[in-house]
Amino acid sequence: MRLWLSQRLSAVMMAIYIVFLIALLIIQQPSNYESWYVFVSPIWFRLVTLVFFINLFIHAWLGVSDVLKDYIFNKILRANLQIIVDILLVVYLIWVSFILWNI
Amino acid sequence: MKFSIYRYNPDVDKKPYMQDYDIELHEEDHMLLDALIRIKEHDDTLSLRKSCREGVCGSDSMNINGKNGLACITKLADLEQPITLRPMPGLPVIRDLVVDMTQFFEHYNSVKPYLINNDPLPETERLQSPEDRAKLDGMYECILCGACTTSCPSFWWNPDKFVGPAGLMQANRFIMDSRDQATEERLENLEDPYRLYRCHNIMNCVEVCPKKLNPNAAIANIKDLKIERAREHKTKTKTLIEIKSV
Hints:
The complex is a heterodimer.
Chain A (H helix, E strand, L loop, with lengths): L1 H27 L4 H8 L2 H29 L3 H26 L3
Chain B lengths: L1 E6 L9 E6 L9 H11 L18 E4 L2 E4 L12 E4 L6 E3 L2 E2 L2 H9 L19 H5 L18 H5 L6 H12 L7 H7 L14 H5 L6 H31 L1
Parallel strand pairs in B: 1-5
Antiparallel strand pairs in B: 1-2, 3-4, 3-5, 6-7
């Protein structure tokens, strides 16, 4: 139940972020490099964006795990594929954090 | 009328094949089952299940032009020709259109589809208010034809683990029954990554149900109840900790 609920909650969090981002884009309307830089620079924006990506990766992890449970019946193969997905998502998270903190 | 029917007799055939029939129907043949009975007059080797002929027993469920349904309540006039008939997908074929439903009924059995009530037997019967009785509407009507479960990809991929829409709707039918006392046990019985949570809401079950029921809503209700139960459990634990600390 926890996994199922986490998938729903992470989806809700992402939806809230997307609505918030669209609203912010409409209000601020960044058009050139400088205005985009100002748009993404605040620490709070970067933190919120990081939270969005964490939710995205949780959602992706749960989704891919579901797909593996559905279609991969060999337990060893499934465990190995799951490890690859885990590593990839952790790498993505580090990468995103790196990008966000180097703006 | 033209038909293309799945044929397989494991005693004789190496592999299944589709057999074409062109049959002259009588004026009184309105339903698909009438046509199948007519075909059997010409070729009595064709095997299929049938019984009530009015959509109550669920015996003649099959895959009709790609969609599961009951032959006895499917109008011939609504079907495109050649009418392609196959056994219900996802279950082993015994012969022609007859499938082995053991797995389906094992899942049905696993949800304990009967009233569990440990109170002493009343003299007459266990009464329900009309409101409580109404909660069973849309579920008790299920005839267990298997059309929903065998059109569900989650069942095709994990037939031994996923209970399937029909079984889960019956689980919900007893969870919602005011006379049943095993709600907790029933919800716990579905706490497994496969038994309940393989349902990804694609709603094939709703699409094909010949009784126009909604197994997907029943599954969603079970998921909601499980969240509610977890929340109640958390509140109870919190209260207990508070009482202990006082």
